[in-house]
Amino acid sequence: MSVSCPTCAATDGTVAVRKALLDADRPLDPQTRELLSMRPEPGKSTGAAITLFVLAGLAGLVGLRTLLSGDDGGSSDTAYRVGYHYGGFLVAAILLGIGLAVHADHRSRRSDTADRWPGTYEQWQQLQQVWRETWLCRRCRVVFLPAGSLRPDFPASPAIPVTRFPEWTESVARQDDHSGAATSD
């Protein structure tokens, strides 16, 4: 599908934003790539917290295996045997505690920005739909929505500078009926 740019009317320089981000032949500069990237889904836990939770689970399984193995630790002293049998659980508890602290810190930061949009998964889906349908003109460095992109009666939007892309997509996505997308906000 080729779409013409509302500014220069060229079709050879236009590409869907999502495809422009994946284009290895004509990569975008880092600043443009950052501006055009989709925001992460709200409410997700951080990768660090998830990693710590998985490691805690694995350490717990190792502790359970050691406890159920029947090995009594030999003729070692009592402290060594307690550490041998319950050390895996101690490591699991430490990793779990750190994971919970990281997750709680992430949640508190997220609640500090609770007035930011999108705050729900449904709002994020609206934002993602606008992002998915937006086109980029590489010549003019503008983004736009073609006519009929969000629904059949949707009017074409004017060209918006790439620098305003994050605010513009949010503005379009916030509109319930998407009818005001033709405004430049």
What does this protein structure show overall?
This protein is mostly helical and 185 residues long. 50% of the residues lie in helices and 6% in strands. The chain is built from six helices and four strands, in the order E-H-H-H-H-H-E-E-E-H. The protein has helices at residues 17-22, 30-36, 47-68, 78-112, 121-133, 165-174; strands at residues 14-16, 135-137, 142-144, 160-161. A four-stranded antiparallel sheet has the order 1-2-3-4. The two termini are 27 Å apart. Mean pLDDT is 82; it is low at 177-185.
What's the overall geometry?
elongated
Strand order, biggest sheet?
1-2-3-4
- The radius of gyration over CA amounts to 26 Å
Percent strand: 5-15%
Helix coverage percent = 40-55%
Chain-averaged pLDDT: 82
Q: How far is the N terminus from the C terminus?
A: 27 Å
Main sheet, how many strands, which sense, barrel? 4 strands, antiparallel
Beta strand count? 4
Q: Please work out how many helical segments DSSP would assign.
A: 6
What's the SSE pattern?
EHHHHHEEEH
Question: Regions with pLDDT < 50 over 5+ consecutive residues?
Answer: 177-185
* Global structural class: mainly alpha
Index terms:
four-stranded antiparallel beta sheet, 6 helices, 185 residues, disordered C terminus, single chain, mainly alpha, 50% helix, elongated, 4 strands
Describe the secondary-structure layout.
Elements: E1 14-16, H1 17-22, H2 30-36, H3 47-68, H4 78-112, H5 121-133, E2 135-137, E3 142-144, E4 160-161, H6 165-174
Antiparallel strand pairs: 1-2, 2-3, 3-4
Summarize the structure.
Helix content is 50%, strand content 6%. It contains six helices and four strands, in the order βαααααβββα. It has a four-stranded antiparallel sheet with strand order 1-2-3-4.
